[in-house]
Design goal:
The complex is a heterodimer of chains A (about 425) and B (about 400). Chain A is an alpha/beta fold and about 425 residues long. Chain A is built from 13 helices and 16 strands. In chain A, strands 1, 2, 5, 6, 7, 8, 9, 10, 11, 13, 15 and 16 form a twelve-stranded mixed β-sheet that branches. In chain A, helix 2 packs parallel to helix 6, helix 7 crosses helix 13 and helix 10 packs across helix 11. Chain B is about 35% helix and about 20% strand. In chain B, strands 1, 2, 3, 6, 7, 8, 10, 11, 12, 13, 14 and 15 form a twelve-stranded mixed β-sheet that branches. Chain B has a three-stranded mixed β-sheet with strand order 4-5-9, with no helix packed on it. In chain B, strand 4 and strand 5 form a beta hairpin. Classes of the chains: A alpha/beta (about 425), B alpha/beta (about 400). Chains A and B meet through helix 3, helix 4, helix 5, helix 6 and strand 6 of A and helix 5, helix 6, helix 7, helix 8 and strand 7 of B. Chain B: It comes from Bradyrhizobium huanghuaihaiense. Chain B: This is 3-oxoacyl-[acyl-carrier-protein] synthase II. Chain B: Pfam families: ketoacyl-synt (PF00109). Chain B: One of its GO terms (biological process) is fatty acid biosynthetic process.
Chain lengths: ~425, ~400
Amino acid sequence: MTAPRDKFGRPVVVVTGMGIMTSLGAGKADNWAKLVAGESGIRTITRFPVEGLKTTMAGTVDFVSVDPFSSTALSERMAELVTQEALEQAGIGAKADFPGPLFLAVAPVEVEWPQRRELGRAVGTQDFNYDDLLRISGGGKYSAYHHRFMFGSVAAHLAETFGTKGSPISLSTACASGATSIQLGVEAIRRGETDAALCVATDGTVNPEALVRFSLLSALSTQNDPPQAASRPFSKNRDGFVMAEGAGALVLESYEAATARGAKILGVIAGCGELTDSFHRTRSSPDGKPIIGCMNKTLADAGMTPDQIDHINAHGTATPENDKMEFNTTSAVFGDLAQKIPVTSNKSMVGHTISAAGAVEAIFSLLTLEHQRIPPTINYETPDPTILFDVVGNKARDARVTAVMSNSFGFGGQNASLILTREPA
Amino acid sequence: MTDTASKPGQTEVWITGIGLATSLGEGLDANWAALQEKRINVDEKGFAPYVVHPLMPVTFDSQIPKKGDQRQMEAWQRIGTYAAGLALDSAGIKGNKDILSKIDMVVAAGGGERDLNVDTGVLTAEAKGANAPGFLNERLMSDLRPTLFLAQLSNLLAGNIAIVHGLGGTSRTFMGEEVAGADAARIALARIASGESDIALVGGSHNGERKDLLVLYEFGDFNLRDKFAPVWARKDHAGFALGSAGAFLVLESKAHAEARGAKPYAKLSSVVADLARRKQPGDMAATLEKLWAKLPKREGKGAIITGATGAEPATSEERGFLKGHADFPVRSTGTMFGHTMETQFPLGIALAALSISRGALFPPNDSTGTEIEMQGAPTQIVVVGAGHWRGEGMALVEAVS
């Protein structure tokens, strides 16, 4: 019998439902099979013309259709599908009656080019200015676009569909958003505000402007051919991340509530930590202190020491700076263990799902714990000699895994880490 | 279930810092003076036919000393970073590395500030026949400023605050229009009350002088047109006038504040929020009533500060709710400051704390009788925030006993 509270006297928070979607496919079974087989979901973009772009590939989710198309609509639909999967597995609450709050990681919402172009065409003249656009925006013809492009629209849709309680929170901590959504759920349960929380993260923003924005910041890989080989975490010839779409949903519950209703426990969120880097908008502090602090806070939150972590699911974006920084900071925290603990980056196969990545990778970490098998980091042909991680290169590895650290670092100095375990400590 | 209120055994949470940069001015004295004089700064011409409340110009250098930092931000981020600095000053922790290295930040933000020239350039070229498949890509690649993205990202308000003021604790950004401001305060309060956090910077900022935002709200016919009127006098001329403002609060556990000798403006006793379905008339008012009932008992001299927008049907629904609590004098921040979206709720808390600390509610500014005079010092102020489209929040700000 495991104690329902952790060593700090807080309710133990467990996962009882998971749903996932990436460029590899829909659902846990499909994703896991392809992930351990080392398949890539990265392909040449067909959703829109790629002429004039430096990067022409991405991990798009093309098998989900929404009409009319917008990145926000795709994000919403993916979030809905992964939530359905998670709720079916958890078997919690009643239909459209989830007994807890929603924490949603979602990309910032804005009017997109198809809608802007529609407006431009509606002006009906060849020369016009922004005031002309403004003049024709009202009158109810475009009221659906107001509703669609509210920041809170995706969360409100999920809250109404699944009957979550209270005010749903839409959050962004850039590439750490998915981890933050889980952290908010963990905290709400630990505070005793709720027995259950629905944590969802979604990102469907592979569109021309988003791609251009990252491109202008030199963040993206330009190794377009073949697209499957573009994302090369920890490799010497890595040259940036690959944008990708995806979503993940986790049902969190207190251990006590989960066991009381006889739910199957899929894993434990043993620790969460976050620490802000105030050095630069897009770069980490050269001394790595904020990331080191983030990892240490997470270990402390879990009441664990570095030697208890036997796998790291890295942020591993494949940008030249991130991967090096991640090794250096991990070494500072884990010492020699940093070269012995198996490390992998799911982004080598699914790309960087940005706002969803923290949740997507937490789910992959939990599946790693379940299957006792670590998915590979593909495209690991030319290891970076300065990154001395034990990278699980190219082929999945069977391993005894009891505790995984999953890292997420984002623009704006956002750092968040999670520790996931199979059983309550 | 997801409400936060100081429970027995939980720590009291004080408001020890307030930073305001609004259409009425910067700092507490300037805003207070304008409120006393019922002075409203409204522009009916610059964005005609739409009415906006423009930011009273500030010297950004005083809170954002590096020009390089200012250039990396668009207006909404500069306003917020400025107001955040004022809040840290007000709490007496500006430059205090020990505290700033652990302060927790919860920011309510929109984002997406556009380069209008780039947008209209693309659209007019297309109207003139540019239709090559890669036309949009090429124009965006050549015309977008590389750093504009960072000025558009919602979480980069928090990022800029961290960089400019040296904050090194945690940082979370909530989005979702008006109620994001209530949720930011709700989560920060819950974390401090439960001991997860000692001190937090909470708030938001908004640039209302944006045609791209006017387009978004014009889609729903939400913009106030032609002529300004107080929020309660817009029934036949509904809409909100976007406002520019930054409002930040320093929230702190009583013990943490006392240990460093900080004085409170007021205490934040409770923040609650919900999502009414708003399918039928009365749904929103029922949710407001439910939230009202969840707040701790009000036995003192009470008042209400609301962020009612002027948009319909939300404002009429809220007026119905307020009529049921007519013993509470009401003040509308929308009349005085315009509608500052994510910032309206933190602004309401700031004005509640300011009113309590100055021993008077600011005077009414309304021709319809919804706002009445208040005699004496308020000890309990309920902050109400009902979104123009969705989301309802409420907070109780009280005098420290």
